[in-house]
Amino acid sequence: MVAEPITKEKNDTRVKRKEKTKTNKKKKPKRIRIRLIPIWFRIVLVLVFMALAAVTGAMIGYGVIGDGEPKNVFKASTWRHIVDLVQKETDE
């Protein structure tokens, strides 16, 4: 089988068909998304929740698991003692 050469008339009808199919499709309106919570506020919330989780975890770890007073987590002397214990173990 030999393919027929494409004439200008055939090419024009192909282009018209493509244009018709494009115009027949219904265009959906572009949906505009409005954020209820801005991105910068989300980042701040994540940082606050991370800090809160760290403080809560330290209180539970020291007070419940470590049999200490949970309020003592906020004292500098407690942290100095913990650092001294860690450095003592690494020196040996």
TrEMBL record:
Q: Where is this region: Disordered?
A: 1-28
Renumbered to this chain, the signal peptide range is none
What superkingdom does the record give? Bacteria
Q: Which GO terms describe its cellular component?
A: DNA-directed RNA polymerase complex
The cross-references to InterPro entries, in alphabetical order and at most eight, read: RNApol_su_b/EpuA
Supply the alphabetized keyword list.
DNA-directed RNA polymerase, Membrane, Transcription, Transmembrane, Transmembrane helix
- List where Basic and acidic residues composition bias occurs: 1-14
Q: Where are the transmembrane segments?
A: 39-65
Pfam families reported in the protein's UniProt record: EpuA
Mind telling me what this protein is named? Answer: DNA-directed RNA polymerase subunit beta
Indicate, by first and last residue, each region the UniProt record lists as having compositional bias (Basic residues).
15-28
